[in-house]
Structures are given as structure tokens and as C-alpha cells.
Please model this.
Amino acid sequence: MEQSVLDSSSQGVDLAQLALLSAMMAGAVAGAVSGWLSKRNIGLALCTFMIGIMGGLLIGTGMGRWFYVASNGADAVVTAGVCSLCSASVAGLAGAIPTALLIPSLVIFITLRHVRNRPPRVKTGLQAAVAGVITGTLTAIALLLV
Model:
């Protein structure tokens, strides 16, 4: 039986899947932003968008299992609504922060090695990471409230 983020039987939200989805969104946005800011090339931005999704899938799965799966294999579930906003925000940040830091770092390390007129690495990386963290957190909150 396939389980979605919003469990219809108990109106609860699985925090491990919430961390996974926020990590995927953060990776996609952070990858696309860092690819675009590195070379101003739409093809590179699309490639780094896909790399960000795949990296977010790996990182989000790990973070969700590490933080939100008990030793007996049960997932942590909170009720959907405004009352569980704090738990959903923390789950979103747990997936979004590592992804939004690792994906732009990897993209910038690979792409800016061969660029003549390089943009500043730290500035590019921080802009992409901030965009990824904001997107991942907003995704977690939006999935909780919908």
C-alpha cells in the first residue's frame, strides 16, 4: 500500500516524508540557482536542477530516517493543521539545510573551475543556499496546511 505525506485515515503528516519532499525542493531550487549564477546558462541550470532533485532525494531520505523513524520502524506522524506548524518547520529545515548547503557547494566546485570571469564563490553559494532553505521550509509548511 502506497503511503502519501498526508495520511487520510488519521489526518496526520509523516515527518520523514515531509523532510524528504522539502529536501528535494530545496535541492532543485539551490541547484538551479547555483547553476544559473555560475555561468548564466539555461542548459546548465536545468542540469543542476535535476542533480539537485536527485541529491535532495538521497539527503532527504537519510535525514528523514535518521530523525523521524523510531527503532521499531514506525514513522513519526503529527496531526495536520496549524497546531503542528513547529514540528513541520523543523522537519522541513532538517531536510532543506543539508541539501541547500551541499548541492550548491558541489555545483560551484565543479562549474567554477573552468570559468574565466568567475563570480565570487562564497556569494554565489550563499545565494543558492538561502534560496534552497527558504523553498524547502515553505514547501514543508505548505504541505502541512494543505
In short: The CA atoms of residues 93 and 137 lie 6 Å apart. The helical segments are 15-39, 42-68, 85-111, 121-145. The chain has a mean pLDDT of 85.
